[in-house]
Amino acid sequence: MCDDGTCSFSFGTKIRTLEPVLAVKDCAQFFIGTSTLTQPNQIQVVQVKDDASDVITTQVFRHPGEVLSLASSPHDRQLLVTCAKQRGESSETLLWKMLETEQSFNQIGDDGKDTESGARMQNLEQLAAFPAQKVPVSEVAWNATTDTSTLASAHGTLLCTWQLNGGSVEAQNKLELDVAMLGGVTKNKANALAWDPHHASRLAFALGGSVRVWDLRAKQDSVSVEDAHPSATLSLDFNPNKPYALAGGGDDGKLKFWDLRGAHKPLLTLNAHSHWVWSTRYHPQHDQLVLSGGSDATVALWRVSSISSSPLVELDERDFMDETAGGAAVTDTLIRRVEDHEDAVYAARWAAGGDTWMFASVSYDGRLAINHVPSTEKYKILL
Hints:
The protein has helices at residues 317-320, 375-382, and strands at 2-3, 6-10, 15-20, 28-34, 41-48, 55-63, 66-72, 79-85, 92-97, 106-107, 121-123, 125-129, 139-142, 150-155, 158-165, 168-176, 190-195, 202-207, 210-215, 220-225, 233-238, 245-250, 254-259, 268-271, 277-282, 289-294, 299-304, 332-338, 345-350, 358-363, 367-372. It is mainly beta. This is EIPR1-like beta-propeller domain-containing protein. It holds the Pfam family Beta-prop_EIPR1.
């Protein structure tokens, strides 16, 4: 269904993962990975028109096992890493290459199915498998700040970095986390990996409710935000324009924003969702905008101007008269809450190409929603 720049479709299968195709800049493309135990899984590449009037499937690939997470190469549109699990087996993480010779373009109908004969199913080419270390890989993050192909992976309480070398992955650095700092509780595992765009050697991650930063040069975790959330920090993202600024969502339904140079107290806390916050993303250019997605089946678009690199100087008079904002706090407020989903939203992502004011989200029941930043909000930022 498409209406006024908003589209939503049901793929008819469970979905946990959505990522923009980072290396494509001339149009908005997204990877979608299915997550079902009852039928074969797929990686789909979908392309969205700038006005969200049409969504087409450009490629469909067979994928072994349900897709638990995926990472798109920032340098090569054909490279993709997935963490996946087949029934009765341990999870595995694989580096894939997608062949581009058999692209097909098929429109998606309101039911999520191709309206034509169906996109031609293709096979992914496996280039390498990530060694399991002491436990299998649970998450991978690509470092977009360097020209080389560097990735980080989480293996329980072990973090590793890897260098792609042709068709293989080579281990570079390892950090064994000190679980004694958590009272010896080992059930917590590292997750929510996020590379620092201003310091190529720093990687943020969550461990239970805490947030830590691993400095690869110093070979130790250099920053620690204890009790960032009650028991689980679920999503992290660095501000693309402002050094040391980190946002995170957790099991308390809150979004918190930190200055890592003095992380004893958050700069800003927002009551974002009524349940867990699975997704947190700054806009890639305009850090006044932040997306969050939660298991309350909603996506929230936030303005956080007061802590951005370019606070909004002029706001519409009606904004200051908004009683719900209370006047003084109007620079940091909810712009819009998207309620197109009926199940937990595990991923909400900005488009990397085409109209970068566009954002997409997926929920576990298989619904994809496409939305835009309202024009009035864009003008406040651009003018």
